[in-house]
Amino acid sequence: MAFEQELDVYLRARFTLVVLVTTEEERALQTVKAVCERANRPCLTWDIADGFKSLIGTGSLSAAPDPVTALEQIDKSDEEALFVLKDFVELLDPRIFSKGPQAKRKLRSVAQRLKFTKKSILITTPSSKIPEELKDEAVVVEFAPPNTGELEAVLNRLTQTPGVKVNLTKLGREKLVQAALGLTASQAQRVFAKAIVSNGALDDRDIDLVTQEKKEIIRESEALEFYALTETPDDVGGLGVLKDWLRLRERAFTQEARDYGLPAPKGIALIGIPGTGKSLTAKMIGGLWRLPLLRLDVGALFGSLVGEAEERTRRALRLAETVAPCIVWIDEMEKALAHGGGDSGTSTRVFGTILTWMQEKTAPCFVIGTANDISSLPPEVLRKGRFDEIFFLDLPTMEERQEIFTVHLRKRNRLPQDFEVTRLAREAQGYVGAEIEQAIIDAMYVGFNAQREFTSEDISAALKRQVPLSVSQRETVGALRNWLREGRAQSASFQEIREAEQQFVPLQLDLK
Predict the structure, then answer these.
(1) Residue-wise pLDDT tens digits, 471-492
(2) d(CA 168, CA 190)
């Protein structure tokens, strides 16, 4: 239900205390004003700086310089009005206002007495944390960020300003508004205005500028990081099964898919050996599906104040839903979603909030979870309903190693046919993609310092100098591969590795 409808129902049902959580006070007041106008209900606002002011109607109250006096005036008023109290929750804190406890008690008493009248109180606050004493009296409502229609209206107001040049195509206008999703109305207005001033006109080129500005604003949320879509399937060697799975769902977020009756995919878990390309794959999915990629930094959710972590978590997840359709990447889940004692249960509550959101979310947010250490993951993380599929990224096969060498040579502007890729792939048995990439970089340093082009021999020598993870962490890698062989996940690779799994072929490394 939209906020306008909710508020109208609350007022007609005589709810006496509503707490509206929003950082967009101006847009929220415009919405409240529209609801009161339709219902022909007077509306007054109060804040500690200006006292009472009429928003709808001609009613007025006498001066009220502090919260307690304001509540007394509301209690005595004969007007059947809605009273909007700005930033009132903060004034209930004795550290901010010395009479905070008195104001808190007064608010509870007034709210209880208003049940027998047609008066209601609405409090605007940027935080959803309210005093425990008020939770039984108040209904808390989250004010959603602007949708595409509201952002379109913001854009229309700007483009109708005399002197503003607009060269947007119909599709460009749609993409520009889509790029601004997740911003507040004020932020969107500033970004659109900056685009106009920067180029002297608004055109399709400004889509990238809006996207860049949105990255900076999302970064301010502290827990979300916006990644540029630079990786493609060609930048990831191997993982054929996973790539086929992704391509089959490439159009899953379109209107066509919804009309067909397909639900939006929930997400995938990428489990496996370090260095096999889990993080690179997450970035590749964003490029393949052309969806915004948001990395959730769970460590940044935790703050020093009580309730701050939970508030940051809810704000980050709301922002992700606003930007949807998008991809939410939780890197190293075993560290991010580990929970335990020592923090008064904060990590457990954050953990529970994220898991519940993954299960119950209706917005098209595709979650990618990556993990190296399966043993540290709570069992409830990987159960069905939170992820559509669990993929295991094993040591690359012979064919995949050839692809990885080809990808990294091309990335460094070298022709793969100038190197003995097949021989190098054979010599790199047991090496993960990150180790193969490092061998090429080491070989490039040798060639650069010798003032010549590096060769296959240089790469081969670099491989022999390395001790791969499959040797240095043999027990850990073996335990991970056994987890796959037990059928707990699907291999991300093609037939070659599946046959090896079925035959339980042990890993043989020639490190001579």
Answers:
(1) 888 888 888 888 777 777 788 8
(2) 18
Instruction: Quote the tokens at residue 484.
Output: 């796959």
> Parallel, antiparallel, or unpaired: how do β-strands 293-296 and 267-272 relate?
unpaired
Residue 250: both structure tokens together: 């490439």
DSSP codes joined into one string, 205-224: THHHHHHHHHHHHHHTTSSE
Q: Tokens for 6? A: 């909710």
Cβ–Cβ < 8 Å for 164, 196: yes
* Distances 148 to 155, 160, 429 between C-alpha atoms, Å: 10, 18, 51
Per residue in 359-391, pLDDT (tens digit) is 888 888 899 988 887 777 777 787 777 888 889
pLDDT in tens, 191-247: 888 888 887 788 877 887 787 777 777 776 667 888 877 788 888 888 888 989 999
Does residue 65 sit in helix, strand or coil?
coil
Burial of 342 (0-12, 13-18, 19+ CB in 10 A): exposed
Q: Give the list of residues 6+ apart from residue 383 with CB closer than 8 angstroms, or none.
A: none
Cα gap 298→316, rounded to integer Å? 10
Q: What are the residues whose beta carbons fall under 8 Å from the beta carbon of 9, sequence distance 6 or more?
A: 1
DSSP state of 176: H
Q: Which amino acid is at 367?
A: V
Q: Which domains does the chain have, with CATH numbers?
A: 3-142 (3.40.50.300), 148-220 (1.10.8), 242-393 (3.40.50.300), 395-512 (1.10.8.60)
DSSP 235-260: GS-S-HHHHHHHHHTTTTTSHHHHHH
- Give the residue from 179, 176, 157, 180 showing the smallest Cα distance to 167: 176
The mean pLDDT of 264-272, rounded to a whole number, is: 89
* Digit-coded pLDDT (tens) for 314-334: 888 888 887 778 899 988 887
- Smallest CA-to-CA distance from 331 within 375, 271, 388 is with 271
Mean pLDDT of the chain: 84
How far is 67 from 86, CA to CA, in rounded Å? 10
Strand locations in 98-170 (E): 120-125, 139-142
Distance CA 152, CA 157 (A): 9
Place of tokens 């898991």: 355
Question: What is the identity of the amino acid at 386?
Answer: R
pLDDT tens digits along 34-86: 999 999 999 999 999 989 998 887 767 777 889 999 999 999 988 889 999 99
Kind plus residue range of the DSSP H or E element containing 72: helix 67-76
To the question of pTM greater than 0.85 for the whole model, the response is no
